[in-house]
């Protein structure tokens, strides 16, 4: 049974992963090589406990009890007795390989080691793991990890089913929705779908079919509105497979399928318009810093999570 968790990397993803577990009763050791990053994570912890409570989330424990479950350290050795260690370091294969090799050396025989990546292959990350190839996995969370429900799970070629089942059960216990990625493919599942949507959307924008404002509305008030309550296959079911078959045959030859560099992104990047972090991207973000806009977004997502949870419970009890 997984009773203590280690998280490597205290940035955006690592913090969110740790927050998810400590607010659901599980102690976490959060490790990072940067003292400053750990300090910032500690400050964010108090901020997000306040935000969740202000948005109507009811935690079973007091803030002090939750905070006391999180330990900060710069020493990877302090993860040695964890039942599960989730690596969420920078997306660099060599760094991840070194981390997994070191964890393989220092951790208890029972420790499961997973990576939060979706852009790098698990089979490459675990190349130097020797003692526990049956206890390695991918556990890919989505940003913000403490709000977005989905976690994609992928076994390695030697991963035991009992390892997968234990991690799957843990994720569901703390309120996550898991999917089983059966084949190791770049981007896993959800990011591939997201990139496919982005490719067509950016092509429509670049080819002058629609303005930035109307493109945003088309997604947010159209497919995005429906996706908030069901997945794509159920939308196809309601529309009719016969109808969708015709639509697919007609539209597939016309939609964007080329691999190209989009000038609508390249030009803005060259001008320094990088999005919210630079106060301007496709849209302008005046008068507030990145953190304020992130908190504003996350408050909205917390409300969306409450609706999602209600829908999920209805499905489970139907």
Task: Note the main attributes of this structure.
alpha/beta, 48% helix, 318 residues, 8 strands, Rossmann fold, eight-stranded mixed β-sheet
Strand order of the largest sheet: 3-2-1-4-5-6-7-8
Please name the CATH architecture of the domain at 5-180: 3-Layer(aba) Sandwich
Tell me the name of the CATH class of the domain at 5-180: Alpha Beta
- CATH homologous superfamily grouping of the domain at 5-180: NAD(P)-binding Rossmann-like Domain
Largest sheet: 8 strands, mixed
Alpha carbon gap, first and last residue: 30 Å
Mean pLDDT: 94
**Shape call:** globular
Structural class: alpha/beta
Order of H and E elements = EHEHHEEHEHEEHEHHHHHHH
Which fold does the CATH topology of the domain at 5-180 refer to? Rossmann fold
Number of helical elements: 13
Short structural summary:
With 318 residues, this protein is α/β, with parallel strands linked by helices. Helices cover 48% and strands 11% of the residues.
């Amino acid at each position: 049974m997984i009773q203590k968790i280690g998280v490597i990397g205290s940035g955006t993803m690592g913090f969110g992963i740790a927050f998810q577990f400590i607010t659901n009763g599980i102690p976490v050791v959060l490790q990072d090589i940067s003292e400053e990053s750990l300090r910032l994570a500690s400050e964010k912890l108090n901020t997000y406990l306040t935000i969740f409570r202000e948005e109507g989330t009811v935690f079973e424990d007091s803030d002090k009890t939750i905070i006391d479950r999180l330990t900060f350290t710069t020493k990877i050795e302090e993860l040695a007795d964890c039942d599960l260690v989730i690596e969420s370091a920078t997306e660099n294969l060599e760094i991840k390989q070194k981390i997994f090799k070191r964890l393989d050396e220092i951790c208890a025989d029972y420790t499961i080691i997973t990576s939060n990546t979706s852009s790098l292959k698990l089979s490459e990350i675990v190349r130097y793991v020797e003692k526990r190839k049956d206890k390695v996995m991918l556990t890919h969370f989505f940003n913000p990890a403490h709000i977005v429900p989905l976690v994609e799970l992928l076994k390695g070629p030697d991963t035991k089913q009992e390892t997968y089942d234990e991690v799957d059960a843990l994720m569901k216990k703390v309120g996550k929705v898991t999917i089983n990625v059966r084949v190791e493919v770049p981007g896993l599942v959800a990011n591939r779908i997201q990139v496919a949507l982005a490719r067509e959307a950016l092509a429509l924008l670049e080819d002058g079919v629609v303005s930035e404002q109307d493109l945003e509305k088309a997604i947010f008030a159209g497919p995005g509105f429906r996706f908030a309550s069901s997945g794509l296959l159920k939308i196809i079911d309601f529309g009719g497979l016969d109808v969708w078959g015709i639509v697919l045959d007609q539209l597939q030859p016309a939609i964007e399928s080329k691999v190209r560099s989009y000038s609508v992104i390249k030009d803005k990047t060259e001008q320094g318009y990088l999005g919210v972090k630079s106060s301007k991207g496709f849209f302008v973000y005046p008068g507030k810093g990145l953190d304020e806009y992130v908190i504003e977004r996350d408050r909205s997502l917390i409300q969306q999570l409450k609706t999602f949870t209600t829908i999920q419970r209805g499905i489970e009890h139907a």
